[in-house]
Amino acid sequence: MKKIAAALAVSAAAALCAANASASGDIIRYCDTSAFINNYPIPCYEINDYCGIYVKDLASYGFSVTFDAAASTVNITRDPNCTSITGIDGVTLPYQMPGAQYAVSGSTNIRVLLDGQETQSYWVDGYMMILLDNMTQYGEKYWDNDSKSLFLTIPDLPQREYAPLEKAKRTYTRVKTPSSMLDFSYYSQFPTEQHDWGFVRVEHDEPSLYDWEKSMVAKFDAYYMDHSKPRAIYLTFDEGYEAGYTPQILDILEKHGIPATFFVTGEYVRSSPELVRRMIDSGFSVGNHTLNHANLAQSSTETIIYEIEALSDKLKYDFGYDEMYYMRPPEGSFNEKTLAIAKDMGYNTILWSFAYYDYDESDQPSTEEAYDMMTRYMHDGAIYLLHAVSSANTNALEGFIQYAIENGYEFRSLDDLCNP
């Protein structure tokens, strides 16, 4: 957080004089910065490169927090009777990628006062947030660049021994089922007619699908778009082999804090382990595109299960990654049996509502054509399938991201769709 360090040169008085009423439309982001009050960790988020905290949390750190309904103010004062800090248990760094969007501040007439003086505040899903940077009247503020930590030390309260925060792990409401616990004969009842995922694109709207496609997807907890979150977009990339563009794609996503899922094959994992490691370490989701990029609709029950499980096991053993919960059938070929097996193994099958002819390295559209396709068929809840071998996709990606954000869209993780 560049501004946190820079803000140390600014006096608390100047910061508070610059404070306004509750801001609206500011993006609150996950961050890899830690915040401490007397070495007790407090959950924090990035707000315009500063450290944002929830006002309600301050009650556990030696402050009195009250609400005056008549004046529409939240009043924060140092509790003179408080001689200890309890803090909040279990504070960790978020598992989400730093820079990924957490929320957008809304409008309210409620003001937040620090000992009677108004401070910049943010209304976030029914709660107020303020900047820890603006609380220097209570103690000394210190930014440690090595640990990326912001400390506020209040002199009349006890301190605890400092301990760095650990990064949280994703938690899910389901677990994967190993093949040893599946009844292979059960899947003989499901139709094996091959279906190839497709639709008619509609400009600035969701694609037109047959009713049977919609019902089949819903029956097996598969997804092709999100009907529950307006202005949401999900980016997914298919990775069958590396053509040299994935590093640039990762650079762009990391620069803008955009979550994404990369569907990898066994060959990709074997040939590009350093990129798979970067995806995992950077907080991206890695999805299952089968071990051998097999046509699952033409495969036996045993082969379907092996193709999915063997790739998942490889990620677990080679990278310690046991969070592969999304499966994309190669070539979009599937049937009821493949969907049923994937569901029973603990996977959501992820299809898409946007794709185009981008996968032939020798026949690439221009950057302008790629950008036009991405923006013209953008719609609420879209799941984008983009091939990472495409130079056009790579060159158009940053402009597309900026266009989508400027038009009110929010890029979200498949975790938000499948594990709300």
UniProtKB/TrEMBL annotation:
One of its GO terms (molecular function) is hydrolase activity, acting on carbon-nitrogen (but not peptide) bonds. Keywords: Signal. One of its GO terms (biological process) is carbohydrate metabolic process. Residues 1-23 form the signal peptide. One of its GO terms (cellular component) is membrane. Residues 231-412 form the NodB homology domain. PROSITE patterns: NODB (PS51677). Pfam families: Polysacc_deac_1 (PF01522). InterPro entries: Glyco_hydro/deAcase_b/a-brl, NODB_dom, Polysacc_deacetylase_ArnD. Gene3D superfamilies: Glycoside hydrolase/deacetylase. The keyword Signal applies. This is Polysaccharide deacetylase family protein.
